[in-house]
Design goal:
This protein is mostly helical. 76% of the residues lie in helices and 2% in strands. The chain contains 16 helices and 2 strands. Strand 1 and strand 2 form a beta hairpin. The radius of gyration is 22 Å and the shape is globular.
Length: 466
């Protein structure tokens, strides 16, 4: 094993095993904590906000779906721009920190508007502007943060460990935003404003705590100076689409997110109307993410043993089986649903964790081939695939169930409408996760190949210093 050190003292392991040369765990936990407010805000956007804004503020599902779709598609332009600008930023505070701080200000203000709305002000325009700002701020935080996470270590398994900390931090944040709505559902399920305020408090509070912890956790590494290319938007898209490894990762993540967001966007309706158990609507999510907290370390260990892409395939196939199992549930009976929810929780982080770790490896291969460091740009595309997946899921699933006859404002829905809700809720995610597994199966960037890439980069980067 070879160990290289940057001028900032960051270890870069070649051929590293999961227990060798690890970054300090406490610092890594502080670094990963910035994931918490982003996760805490994003899941309610897909799960609680459509239902609450439809029922409490009387916006139609079609309008909400169109707004979410438009805002996510806007990210197709904003995210690569943030990634490219972060890669080319040079300040005495680093490349990533200035973007994270600016994004935190925008994100915090927009979150307050979205989760603490005045009923007199809520219109489709209000929702659209608030979502626009939330997505912009989250992009300015998450893309540089993800790129930074790929730079603090170049080791194959250590990157999986870093993303595991991210997964656990995100799962804990999700637990926090799910516990409060679950308690509110048991006391006063009709108080949607209180539910929104509880979620918003967790998001803003975790942002205030996590921001300084992340900024002080690790120094930004000194990367080799290379000629910087300023690409037009069309050229940027071409760079992203022409990389075959990145293309596979992005399409796989796109499919993963479609599956997760379809399930997330419909689960409140499924539990409330199909199962006839409205008191369990938030509780099932809470139950799922309790197991999600331990899922990250479990899948990290699997990835250490069989490789990232094989672990991703295994996790996706588990989710296929879990979603198909929903066809066997009986309305009014919670037992099988609880078992399937537990399985979903244990598998939910597998694809996300492995694919995020793989993106940094793909960026290394790209830098070796082209001489250009485009880590943030690559992660911006990864963020884009996730946002596009959410947009397609919400923008298609909600209008589809409405077309099939389901109406969340109706006192009762027909059996045909409820069957349509079941089919979209169960079969849609199952197909999406199967597609994701097929796309990442046989991924060629293995641990051995990545070790060769890191060795070649280390040798080339050492030449100017000599």
């Amino acid at each position: 094993m070879a160990t290289l050190y940057t001028s900032q003292g960051l270890a870069v392991e070649i051929g590293q095993g999961p227990q060798e040369g690890q970054l300090n765990g406490w610092r890594l936990a502080g670094f990963a904590s910035l994931v918490a407010p982003i996760y805490a805000a994003q899941l309610p956007l897909a799960v609680h906000l459509p239902a609450i804004y439809a029922q409490q503020f009387h916006l139609s599902l079609s309008v909400i779906g169109a707004i979410f779709l438009a805002e996510r598609l806007w990210g197709a332009f904003a995210d690569p721009l943030v990634g490219a600008l972060s890669d080319s930023t040079r300040t005495r505070f680093g490349r990533r920190r200035p973007w994270i701080v600016a994004g935190a200000v925008i994100f915090g203000a927009a979150t307050a508007a979205l989760y603490f709305p005045s009923a007199q002000l809520v219109t489709p325009l209000y929702l659209g502007v608030a979502l626009f700002a939330v997505y912009l701020g989250s992009s300015m935080i998450s893309i540089p943060h993800l790129a930074w996470s790929g730079e603090i270590s170049g080791a194959y398994h250590e990157r999986t460990r870093i993303q595991t900390f991210h997964t656990v931090a995100g799962s804990i944040a999700l637990l926090a935003v799910l516990v409060l709505p679950t308690i509110i559902d048991q006391v006063n399920p009709a108080d949607a404003s209180l539910k929104l305020a509880a979620i918003g408090t967790v998001v803003i509070g975790s942002l205030v705590v996590a921001l300084p912890l992340t900024l002080r956790s690790f120094p930004e590494p000194d990367l080799p100076v290379a000629p910087r290319q300023r690409l037009a938007f069309g050229d940027t898209v071409t760079v992203l689409l022409r990389d075959p490894l990145l293309r596979r990762v992005l399409l796989s993540d796109f499919a993963v997110t479609i599956g997760q967001s379809t399930r997330g966007g419909l689960i409140v309706f499924f539990v409330t109307f199909y199962m006839g158990l409205p008191q369990w609507a938030s509780g099932l999510f809470l139950f799922q993410f309790i197991f999600g907290v331990v899922a990250g370390p479990i899948w990290a260990q699997i990835g250490y043993r069989i490789g990232k892409h094989r672990a991703a395939v295994a996790g996706e196939l588990v989710q296929v089986a879990t979603n198909l199992g929903l066809f066997f549930v009986v309305p009014g009976q919670i037992g099988l649903v609880l078992a399937l929810t537990m399985a979903q929780g244990l598998a939910q982080g597998s694809g996300n964790l492995m694919l995020r770790s793989m993106v940094a490896d793909v960026a290394d291969a790209h830098r070796l081939r082209t001489g250009q460091d485009r880590t943030a740009l690559f992660f911006s595309a990864f963020s884009l695939s996730a946002k596009a997946g959410m947009a397609v899921a919400v923008g298609v699933a909600l209008p589809l169930v409405a077309w099939l006859g389901f109406d969340p404002k109706a006192a009762t829905n027909s059996p045909e409408a409820l069957r349509g809700l079941l089919w979209v809720f169960a079969l849609g995610p199952a197909i999406a996760h199967l597609v994701s597994a097929a796309l990442v199966h046989g991924f060629p960037l293995t641990q051995a190949r990545h070790a060769d890439i890191r060795r070649a980069l280390a040798e080339r980067d050492a030449v100017p210093a000599e």
